[in-house]
Amino acid sequence: MNFPKQVKINEVGPRDGLQNEAVMVPAEAKVEWINMLSETGVPYIELSSFVHPDWIPQLKDATEVARHIKRNPAVTYAALVPNRKGLERALEVDVDEICLFLSSSETHNKKNINKSIKDTYPVLQEVSQDAKSAGKKVRGYVSTVFGCPYEGDIPIDNVISVCERLFSMGVDELSIGDTIGVADPAQVENVLIRLFDYFPKEKLAMHFHNTRGTALANVLMALSYGITNFDSSVGGLGGCPYAKGASGNLATDDLLYMLDRMGVRTGIDIDKIIQSSLYIEQYVSNLSSHQMKVINRTR
Ligand code: HMG
Ligand code: MG
After folding, report:
1. Which atom of ligand 1 is nearest the CA belonging to 52?
2. Number of domains in the chain
3. Is residue 1 in a domain?
4. What is the value of pTM for the model shown?
5. For ligand 1, mutation pick of 15, 46, 51 (most atoms within 8 Å of CB)
6. Beta strands in 95-211 (DSSP E)
7. How far is the CA of 174 from the centre of ligand 2 (A)?
8. Which ligand is nearest to the Cα of residue 60, counting in written order?
9. pLDDT (tens digit, 9 = 90+) per residue, 91-105?
10. How far is it, in rounded angstroms, from Cα 298 to Cα 277?
11. What's the domain range around 221?
12. pLDDT tens digits for range 197-246
């Protein structure tokens, strides 16, 4: 197979990783963790979410975290923003990149952001426009592309229509989400073939959760189709509290192990990523990365 020689990895642990945790990680620990991640060579860190604090209490300290981290100029610090209020909060602390999010499932969208898909568009349109005027890069997330806990399979035409709307708002790239970790490589191939009819592969990232252990296999399929942009979370932390059954993201540690051995460059130091996993493991108990299990057995 022909694989890309270099890929970009987006570390989403401080946001997607912590938003589904039962424990509240103290803000100082998040700051320390993000500072460690900032020195690993990872080019992008999602530091938190400017969503409603009652909806995601785990990330209610987003402002404090964003204010106290030591920023590495080589890193893009991004955050999730659901609406105008979220954008105001994110701009106040000068987040580099704004991430909009929307589901391709009507039911999940309603449960996650309390609006129909149609009613979400004008809200995101305004946020995207204002974020651009403020000089920010804008990323879009499309959730439940490979299956929804409430609606089951989502027709690919619905996914394409949501992606088209987000691109028409000027988003710079779209992250295609397997929110509950149901995708398999054959489905990834089918979805990518359809998406490539409409969107350039350079503008697509893949966001796999690993609920059923298929995330690395899905990455391999996406790599073979020339995708070079992947989201992952240190230790395999993560999930969406408003998508029943969602569990850990693809672990950054496992992804790096595979890519390093395949000779695909990421610019990230795997030993430093493992150190950052060991750090956050003091605060959360269920790291699911296979690399971490090996490390913990030999410690
Ligand atoms: P709502 O209750 O419909 O909000 O929630 P509203 O617009 O009706 O406003 C109600 C009150 O909330 C108002 O205050 C607003 O100011 C305030 P009041 O006037 O009553 O005093 N408010 C806010 N406060 C702080 N920050 C804000 C904000 N917005 C409104 N941003 C809302 C709608 C979108 C806010 C809520 O549903 C929400 O926060 N949802 C977030 C859920 C979430 O974060 N889910 C996880 C992320 S998505 C994900 O994980 C998937 C992904 O990883 C990809 C994948 O895996 O597929 C990205
Ligand atoms: Mg996610």
Report:
1. 39
2. 1
3. no
4. 0.96
5. 51
6. 97-103, 137-143, 173-178, 204-208
7. 13
8. 1
9. 999 999 999 999 999
10. 15
11. 8-296
12. 999 999 999 999 999 999 999 999 999 999 999 999 999 998 888 887 77
